[in-house]
User: What shape does this take?
Amino acid sequence: MRLTLRQLQIFVAIAQCGSTTAAGERIALSQSAISAAIAELERAVKLRLFDRVGKRLQLNDHGRAMLPQAMALLNGVDNLEKSYLNIAPSLIILGASPTIGNYLLPRLLADYWRLQGVVLGDASPPLQVIVANTADVAAKVAGFEVDIGLIEGPCHRPDIEVTPWLRDELLLVASPGHPVVLEANGNQISSERLAKTNWLLRERGSGTREALEHALLPHIPQLKSCIEFNNHEAIKQAAVQGLGIACLSPLVVADMLKTGQLVKLNTEFGGIPRRFSLLVHHQKQVTPGMQNFINYASRAVTTSDFHGL
Assistant: This one.
């Protein structure tokens, strides 16, 4: 069997783009050259790797099994090539879920680059950040689209190494004029009352939502919600306007709690503990730059290490 890196590159491009035409545009090859390379690859492995559906190519079970191995191999070759050209990877790509990406990561990165001697403001540190929900960040790590993932929810993918990172908690908060707050008058709010009010929830796939449901659904069979958001800031502002109860990290609501625009609810749940995690693909080649960042980030124990909460 003689597989070439070019064949694997074309195979991955088609798997990600869904057609020979789109793959050819990505890697600057003609459609005929793409088709010929895939035919040669399938002959070499003596297996069909795609189902042909009209003009689209969809991975079959053999193709799905080959894809992560091919991506890992191409990633390793890329790192090897760069190291021997004496230009070790200069750009780290981080994927972060919204609480981390919007409220914690800016401070973390600023401190990290100052320690590296970078003069912030004019300099352009070699780093790219992609903010997405927990499920999407895990998928990007699995697809080698990001080097390191920083998430606030669980990840159970067998191809990803999950390292517990920071301790955080979620607070139940509402406007001081919310009916639940006024009725309680400082007393503990029952689960029955919480079940009757409107909740401001993140979309499914969010680590914040998963942690909330894990903690509350055994006590409240259903969280009533008329609006879902994919943005913590939108939830916070909606809560300030009295549209419902929110469940957010102190990283997100510290400012509004301080000014009194939001209040922490007195419930049996208190602060809902959770862990932020750091993700790296099992087959990812960890570069010195990646390891330096991981080592720095791992020194922190809680989210308050970065924001003094």
